Amino acid sequence: MKTAATFLALCFLGYSYILSVSCVEDVYEYLWEKNKDLADQILNLDFLRQMESGSLQAERYVNFTIQDIGYVLEVTKMLKSMSTKVSRPDDIREFMKGRFSSYKSFGESMLRGYLFKAEPPIQQTPAMRNYLSSYRKLMLEEPIYFAVGLLPCVRLWVWLANNLNIPPTNAYFTWKVDNMGGHPEKHYKALLNKYLNTADKVAKANAVFREQMQNEHDFFSTS
Ligand SMILES: *[C@@H]1O[C@H](CO)[C@@H](O)[C@H](O)[C@H]1NC(C)=O
To answer: How far apart are CA 169 and CA 92, in angstroms?
Structure first.
């Protein structure tokens, strides 16, 4: 018992101060919990609270949607490049290929949904330019960090959709329904937990995750 208690105490200290990796059993959850403060801030931004109350100006939502389409199209291009560039390990290559094909069909369905015949040229806002340039920097790192960089958006939007109280009579109900059912853990959890296996890697992943979460924040706060 004494040994277990001592271990737990050390583990707690390690977890809080030095990221002792032996204690971070689930890096996937750890990254989310460590950055939950930003998710909470985002949930409370006026853009999302006005979606919830149904008072968000329609033109603001249109601008946001156009930027979102631009985001999906650009990230798809980066995933295309990552999926040809990464040849091993097999599971990371398959992850990139799978995400590329999923983003590609999502982007195509968005374009079809708004009757675009081809990719529209979209002027990115400064916040979106910054977000995409963070992604481009990640393309130069070990591929696992590009996977980490994709996750904040994926996990955040599911969480926002589930945490905003938007009834079926609200104009933004379809946004909620389209986003509430995602299961990011299916694609990310095992991969991140496998490869982020040292304290240094966890710390670096946390820095990447936080930067991308901040980029999400800036996208919503300027929309
Ligand atoms: C939409 O974006 C354009 C370009 O940034 C801006 O001029 C316009 O004011 C925005 N509309 C709204 C309602 O925010």
So the answer is: 42
